[in-house]
Amino acid sequence: MFINETTITVRYAETDQMGVVYHANYLVWCEIGRTGLIEQLGFKYTDMEKQGVLSPVINVNMNYLRPAKYGQQVTIKTWIESYTGIRVKYGYEMHNSLEELCLTGTSEHVCVNAETFRPVNIKKVFPDWHIAYETHKRHV
């Protein structure tokens, strides 16, 4: 299983009145981690989009365990939790500067035709992505 690690610094604008990261910002950080993982595997979302394929989110599950706070470094760990050739589930963990586990979660995505929003078989349309995802997904 391949894991991407991305570190960000919590900005003031990402926190609430208590100085704690507002929950919706974790979704943005998941996207940062997911994009980093995809790029580290040698691919780019923009290349997919140029070929008329989008990858919408179809499900998100986040478990908030500890707060991340303004000024802390947060490490986002991202991996391919599962892959079916059409659906991809990414896994996430986020740790704060104190090395406390702040969040665990997953997001599920499908590839669809940009015009029709009908599912696209990744193996057929993006064989290189398919091989990389099969190779690097979590093996249970």
TrEMBL record:
Pfam family, one: 4HBT_2
Alphabetic keyword roster: Hydrolase
Domain of life according to the entry: Bacteria
Annotated InterPro entries: 4-hydroxybenzoyl-CoA_TE (IPR050563), HotDog_dom_sf (IPR029069), YbgC/YbaW (IPR006684)
Coiled-coil zones: none
Molecular function GO labels: fatty acyl-CoA hydrolase activity
Family: Belongs to the 4-hydroxybenzoyl-CoA thioesterase family.
NCBIfam families: YbgC/FadM family acyl-CoA thioesterase (TIGR00051)
Protein name, as recorded: Acyl-CoA thioesterase
Organism whose genome encodes this protein: Salipaludibacillus agaradhaerens
